[in-house]
């Protein structure tokens, strides 16, 4: 039985969606970090996201087993799931359980994913399985890259043979070392026997006889003992380097670190200066992870309100694995293929050797179906704090052939020269290299001195040459600046409409913008050395200027053209890099198109098109040759409505400024990129690629919407379709009736799938010029300019009028909100700028009520149900109050407080107003239905008292209108001592009531004790008599 298939287009709704019967094989009721109770909120969130984003419906069938990891239980549950039958399996998570289950899954041809099982080197032999978690083999790629980078070929590995996890990690490292033709020495220890420093020293001395690079795999506290031993052997002076492993940053980098508040702390801090620790990269502060976390918490609050939400690595990995499979189904259906049993292999392997954006970053699944995860290498700074010095990204390994890793800050080597240790000392590991024989020492010293003098002279000469050469290179390059020279200016941004928010291209001074066109919220205007500039920021570590980048800056500075934005400055870090262009009053072309109040006739549009086409031609005729990142977000419009192209040139700089996380915003920045460049968008551009980008900008100008906007499709889906040959005609939808025919034809020619079929820039310039002549009104340039300014003036008048109306509307809304929070008299006093002073009232009536047995009802209801109950009830109460001269003072839980005669005096009518309100509320409670318990009835307890009080507004933040005095206390006692569904009033209230009308009251037996000094005679209020 296969998955029910419905062929549709990616991004559109399936009707109905394919239903995937999903077996969930996990442990339950354990303390494991991947127990079902831990993963459940994330699994449910992933099911919901799969349905809304990819239109795939997962139908979970739980096959859980208790008692912890169990191979037999996992095997049994897998057989049960296979015969259910299921189409797809999630889990198991335990390593041995997973391996046993995969054998069965393969036999029954069932696709599966897992977000754990990291102790297995590879799942390559299981063709239907994809693992979205890291594994012990690929985690060492980063370390191997470091070994090769520094020329370290002899590696010593000391590991705890009593710890299965450490043994597996050691075997994976040794396998990596053999694969890369390096050498290693293996030293096993038993943690039950090695406890003292002198025992650790014996193993370290043995390792030191064969290596200077020592990997120590054991728990953090035992590693600390070894590092103390290394310090006492003199191994932490920079001649050795040590590596540890702490995937989740909770052992060596956490509770079992160097600082244990004992006598060894000072010694271990110095020793750990020679230790590097490999861990998984921390993505918890990345936007996509925060979005995932919020999604899981919201799902948990709805479906698991009593569950404590846990967010860990495995939770995110299982979440990603489900979305990966949903996307695979979506794409397979979109291509017109089956997703049944006959196509399970293609469905399972569709995302192998590919990347997709996940909760933990860019997820790269290698050709064997396993994830190459992102890792970090940390070292200890001089303050004793761990810092990430370098990062390794799994997805970059496939995109960049020569990729090693990303260096964030220089590694700290624990020696005076701050240099890495040699693979082998000059005199050998044991000092027995013949080269260190001291015979003929005098001759050697003499020759050494002469050689040293010659070398020093040569070095001084080279340094002097480089200094003068560097100064020559920097001549005229005054654009290089620092963040101290940048200050935020008072910026006025043109974007105000909803449409502009959807299309907008603005960036944030703090958040940054992907250079080359990634949409953000606001255009940044800044002052650079006192000059107003457009600031383009990216959150990146510092970029080191080299000769290549200097030459690129020169080329940009030398390009002078009225349609090319002038480069005003570059800031290379730290932590943020920025490019600054001459200030453009109207923002980007995308901003201008998104501003609905600006009317664009074709005279205006042709002017803009001609401007940026001229700019492209100027770039093509310069040493820069191509743009490579052209979009409507990097075309700026100045105060004279002249378009200028920015973000041109500087290919090395922009390459180094690309984001680590390729999220939805990054995919949106590629919407202008030619299909042939999408696999490697970082490569230098081509003229054909720029022509394609120009066609997309033309579609924006015609339709006045973002690229592909009318398709209402996610950027990730659009980019995926553009890369497939079967979608070679997939382009933006453009209404040919909205533009001159020549522009429509030109657009189609420029976005041709075959780059060789696209026209050259010179041809495009000529076509646009001829089209403008035949499609615009005749007249002088001055006539056209005056007409354009008149239209712009009218547009501005409409904008001002619209803003004025919006302001008045918002002002009215604010006043209405204030009137709901505070009494009208108080609000009016505050509006006049006067202070609200306490006010005495000689006679008011105060009402209290609460719900009988509310605590019992709340304890047996969910928080959401309680809130819904009170909201429904108090909405009815509020509507009743509007019929009387009364004011709701406050609600505290189930307690409802109302007063009459305050804040507006009404003579003696307040007693009758409150009593009539009380009688009406009793009528309403009799017909009230509890939403989640329609068969139960609510009962009220009511009380009222008449007397003097003082009113006042308390607090500056969320101010409250409050009543003070003994009257309030007595009114509360009238309610608390009342009986269910009865109204108890004080004698003062009853006497005043009888002077105002005919009410049926009954004297209650015995007075009510308010406090030690006060007793009150009370009455029951039954009804108001007719007449």
From TrEMBL:
Q: Could you tell me the EC number(s) of this protein?
A: 4.6.1.2
Which regions form coiled coils? none
Residue ranges constituting the Protein kinase domain according to the UniProt record: 509-768
Per its record, what are the GO molecular function terms? adenylate cyclase activity; ATP binding; GTP binding; guanylate cyclase activity; peptide receptor activity; protein kinase activity
Q: Which residues cross the membrane?
A: 443-465
The way this protein sits in the membrane is described as: Single-pass type I membrane protein
> Known PROSITE patterns for this protein?
GUANYLATE_CYCLASE_1 (PS00452), GUANYLATE_CYCLASE_2 (PS50125), PROTEIN_KINASE_DOM (PS50011)
UniProt keyword list? Cell membrane, cGMP biosynthesis, Glycoprotein, GTP-binding, Lyase, Membrane, Nucleotide-binding, Receptor, Signal, Transmembrane, Transmembrane helix
Q: What class of enzyme is it?
A: lyase
User: Where is the protein localized?
Assistant: Cell membrane
Q: Is Lyase tagged as a keyword?
A: yes
InterPro entries on file: A/G_cyclase, A/G_cyclase_CS, ANF_lig-bd_rcpt, ANPR/GUC, Cyclic_nucleotide_synthase, Kinase-like_dom_sf, Nucleotide_cyclase, Peripla_BP_I
Tell me, which GO biological process terms does this entry list?
intracellular signal transduction; receptor guanylyl cyclase signaling pathway
- Kindly give the Pfam families that the UniProt entry links to this protein: ANF_receptor, Guanylate_cyc, PK_Tyr_Ser-Thr
Q: Provide the Guanylate cyclase domain boundaries.
A: 845-975
Q: Which GO terms describe its cellular component?
A: plasma membrane
Q: Which reaction does it catalyse?
A: GTP = 3',5'-cyclic GMP + diphosphate
Tell me its family: Belongs to the adenylyl cyclase class-4/guanylyl cyclase family.
Q: Which PANTHER family match?
A: ATRIAL NATRIURETIC PEPTIDE RECEPTOR 2, GUANYLYL CYCLASE
Provide the protein name. Guanylate cyclase
